[in-house]
Amino acid sequence: MNAAKILGLEEASWPERALFAVTMCVMLSLGAVGFLRPSALSSALTGAKGWILTYFGWWFILLGFVLLIAVFAFTASRYGRLRIGGPDAEPEFDRFSWLSMVFTVGFGASVLIWGVAEPVSIAQHPPPDPAPVQGASVESMALAFMFIHEVFPGLAMWYLPVAIAFGIVVYTEGVGDYKISSMLTGIVDEDRIPGLYWLVDLAALVATIGGISTTLGFSAQTMSAILGRVFGLEATILTYAVFALIGVVFLGDVWLGLRKGIRNAARATVVLIGVAMALLVAVGPSLYMVELSLDATGVWLSNMFRLTLYTAPESGGNWAANWTGFWWAWWAAWSIFVGSFVARVSKGRTIREMFAVLVIVPTMFTWIQHGLIGGWVLAPGYQEPVAEAMASGGNPAAIATALQITPFGTVLAVLFVFIIAGYIITSLDSAVFMISAITLGDENPNARNRAWWGALLALFGMLSLRLEEFSAIESLSVTMALPFSLFLLLVLYGSYVVARDYVREGEDEMPQSDPQTSRPQSADHGVPDDD
């Protein structure tokens, strides 16, 4: 058996084999530095993140606002009725499976990790004076910023541009190969700039791996902290063992494929989240949780644009860049992988349906989750211990301490470990599925190639346990996101060009008939009636 067959590259072209080899070499080199010189890698990544957020934090804030407007305009237009895969495409997944996959892949363990860390951190270190919202308590302000960053408008800004572009260009119009570079078809001819498409795919793979590695790093360190602090176990060794077990489950999922593997893992994770939130309401400071959630919701909804565009230029610091700029960079790093995956599992759905499942439904779900988790850790008796733990041990220590001081916290901790494991499995499954698909240009890549990419991502997850500072993991996504930020504008414009031409062609192909008896343009090629 030759090397190409072992790597799942036997049917790949030479450019695709080169794409696999170069990406693997780049990431393995970075991984080798991390294992051999973790302090040097931590210092380099943290320095890169600080420089990018200092000088380009404003760019991510502006870009997010522009993308938000563009996505709403596209969805509300007649192009919002375009069906992914064409007018005759049928949905591949039931609604619960579809929503579960989109939610667990798109949001990951950050709901738990940052749901604890961000509100407490902002409450302890609020925005500089003058405050963006006068009269609001620091706790309500902190939770309102959490809603901005991970509920809305964060949900609408970053994944949808790629999901719309990939769905329309690759599935509905059928332009180009199953690659990220295909989304440039409507605006750049591949033959005019030789090698451009290959470089775009290379950058997309590196950015995707950087983004997913960030969440795997969050998850690994948080799992280690929970096992060590809550259960008093040998955390690092046990976390390696848990990752090994997750790897076995992951390999089984790889062979089961998209319909059984990723779908079932996602559904189980969503059910566990519901159970954990119900238990948290039962054992936590429930009255405070509900009241703070409502108050913060008022601050959030009344000042959404103010908080979204807040930059605090008069303060001379980087508070907004270090929060909103960081979040938007992280979303951007994830957008390539999540957007293309959402398009893949949304075949047979319209753009407006995809908007609903990626924005409207998750907005309600994450609003409830973050309201409960934020109210829990900001409550009197909880906030100070969690803040002290965060100051000494970082974000993973914060969530572990919150569990330690909560009644029945060990039960919650078990649920949280399973939820994090579920997020890791679904993120690994979906990430390697799309990374392999992009590499091979194949909608259904072979299991051998996916397994190699899975091994690489698992390596980066374990690498995070050797990094000295949790902030180094955060830095990876920001560093990878900057070069790809402009690409998001290009692909959104490219999807508009392709959608416009596609609809026009459909109109030209419609048979001419008596205008008094013909139906209106609801019969557009690929534009179904609104039911």
TrEMBL record:
What is the recorded membrane topology of this protein?
A: Multi-pass membrane protein
Organism domain of life: Archaea
A GO term, aspect molecular function: transmembrane transporter activity
Which ranges does the record mark as transmembrane?
A: 18-36, 56-75, 96-117, 156-175, 196-217, 237-258, 270-290, 325-343, 355-379, 411-438, 450-467, 479-499
Spell out the residue ranges making up region: Disordered: 507-531
- Alphabetized Pfam families for the sequence: BCCT
Looking up InterPro entries in the UniProt record yields: BCCT_transptr
- Keywords on record: Cell membrane, Membrane, Transmembrane, Transmembrane helix, Transport
Main localisation:
membrane
Location within or outside the cell: Cell membrane
Gene Ontology CC entries for this record? plasma membrane
Protein's name in the database:
BCCT transporter
- Source organism (scientific name): Haloterrigena turkmenica (strain ATCC 51198 / DSM 5511 / JCM 9101 / NCIMB 13204 / VKM B-1734 / 4k)
Taxonomic lineage of the native organism: Archaea, Methanobacteriati, Methanobacteriota, Stenosarchaea group, Halobacteria
